[in-house]
Recover the amino acids of this structure.
């Protein structure tokens, strides 16, 4: 498999990955595009140091990382009114693969991409899944917590700095906050059972989280 080096990190260089990068660039704000690229690079740095992850499908890992935030897209055709953003992103990636890689991505590889994206905010599950899902989640986590919180401490300051020099953060903090709060304003019913609700509770005026506990307790009260 052909490779290229970005920010000091050697990653695969296939026509599908190039298409995924362009698709992400076309459908995400620049700061979010840079975020997905950094998560790809951080995931490769860390996963390549973990023996159990070194044999992963590197193209699957790459595509999942690059497309994982399509649920934040500014392209209305990619966004639903009734699904949480992780599911929108996973479904969008699956449709992308049907169009771009129907001859090389079988159902199993497509499902790995879908799972990696759908579970990317749920590390308590993702980190116990297939290597491609784990590696994708490791990279995403690292872009939010930096060197200090990188999984297993497997990222050096020098590695982090080289990636960020090549792919700058561009005000990621504010852009990501607005993306999460936008979900709470625009389709709050998709946020109640996930971490997006915490953004709504803290920053969105008038947002009221409907808790699963209330639903469960009401059912138990009714049913005995």
């Amino acid at each position: 498999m052909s490779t290229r080096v970005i920010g000091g990190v050697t990653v695969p260089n296939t026509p599908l990955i190039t298409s995924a990068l362009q698709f992400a660039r076309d459908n995400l704000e620049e700061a979010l595009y840079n975020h997905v690229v950094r998560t790809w690079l951080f995931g490769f740095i860390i996963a390549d140091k973990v023996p159990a992850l070194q044999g992963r499908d590197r193209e699957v890992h790459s595509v999942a990382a690059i497309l994982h935030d399509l649920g934040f897209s500014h392209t209305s055709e990619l966004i639903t009114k009734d699904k949480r953003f992780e599911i929108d992103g996973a479904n969008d990636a699956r449709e992308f693969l049907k169009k771009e890689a129907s001859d090389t991505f079988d159902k199993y590889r497509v499902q790995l991409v879908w799972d990696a994206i759908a579970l990317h905010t749920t590390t308590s599950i993702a980190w116990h899944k297939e290597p491609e899902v784990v590696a994708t989640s490791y990279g995403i986590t690292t872009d939010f917590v930096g060197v200090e919180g990188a999984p297993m401490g497997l990222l050096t300051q020098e590695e982090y700095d080289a990636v960020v020099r090549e792919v700058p953060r561009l005000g990621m903090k504010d852009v990501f906050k607005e993306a999460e709060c936008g979900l709470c304003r625009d389709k709050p019913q998709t946020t109640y059972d996930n971490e997006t609700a915490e953004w709504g509770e803290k920053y969105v005026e008038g947002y009221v989280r409907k808790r699963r506990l209330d639903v469960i307790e009401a059912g138990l009260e009714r049913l005995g």
Notes: The beta strands are 3-6, 9-12. The longest helix spans residues 131-149.
